[in-house]
Amino acid sequence: MKIGIVGCCGRMGQMLVEAVLTTSGVELSGGVERPGSSFVGQSISSRSALLVSDDAKNLFAISDAVIDFTHPTGTVLHAQWAAQAKCALVVGTTGLSADDEAILAQSAQQCPIVYAANYSIGVALLSALVERAAAVLGDSYDIEIVEMHHRNKVDAPSGTALSLGRAAAQGRKVELDQVWCKSRDGQTGARPKGEIGFATLRGGDVVGDHTVIFAGAGERLELTHKATNRNVFAAGAVQAALWAHRQKPGLYSIVDVVAD
Ligand code: NAD
Questions:
Q1: What is the C-alpha separation between 40 and 164, in angstroms, rounded?
Q2: Catalytic amino acids?
Q3: pLDDT per residue as tens digits for the range 33-79
């Protein structure tokens, strides 16, 4: 099976290249960077003779699956090329708008697409635990989600924090965007009952920490996940690519991959 990587020189891209090169039964079909990037024409990895290309469209034509951890503007284009080439796509990019997600859903009518804000197995389990805790504890417990990432992260709150918020909202049978508070500043007034709050920290080289707090009267439950190495996301994404290649067109999540 041939897997290609778009954004192959980014923090995650480099991890993904190494994960593909060290997975048996898988061949790296190529790696692509933004047109104009200084990486284009350079070697993809010391373990491979391939050079970084800027022709993403061609990568979809020669691959069975492509993994994309880039930027929303790139990801929406890649989804359309995946659909044209009927190539499986694994999307790890976060910060997609509702319109971007609609393009993913439309493209998924032509090819299998796995889309997840977090490819670690630990976070998939955390999500299920959060949904259950939210259902059991009810809205007399205030839900706050705290996340910390490295200083170069460009979107906030993190896609993982938002997906944990969605899991909590699902547990309470409400829509997240009706109850969320994504940041606070100044004279905010008292906390509305049922609100799901987010707090974002940025600094250093933190790979990704998420804590979901259920604060009641007289007790507090905190569920925490800490990623200490990007390898966990890369390994999960390669597993998702192997799985997606065998699926019918459709939009899938990491939960579908793990459950199979
Ligand atoms: P990064 O900035 O280090 O890497 C992004 C790479 O994509 C860069 O090399 C950039 O040049 C390239 N790129 C951007 N637009 C492109 C385009 N149109 N075509 C080809 N290449 C393009 O960022 P990162 O830390 O690797 O994170 C990338 C994305 O993955 C972010 O959205 C981040 O939040 C997300 N992420 C997701 C998970 C997960 O498990 N789903 C884990 C970590 C990071």
A1: 36
A2: 149, 153
A3: 999 999 999 999 999 999 999 999 999 999 999 999 999 999 999 99
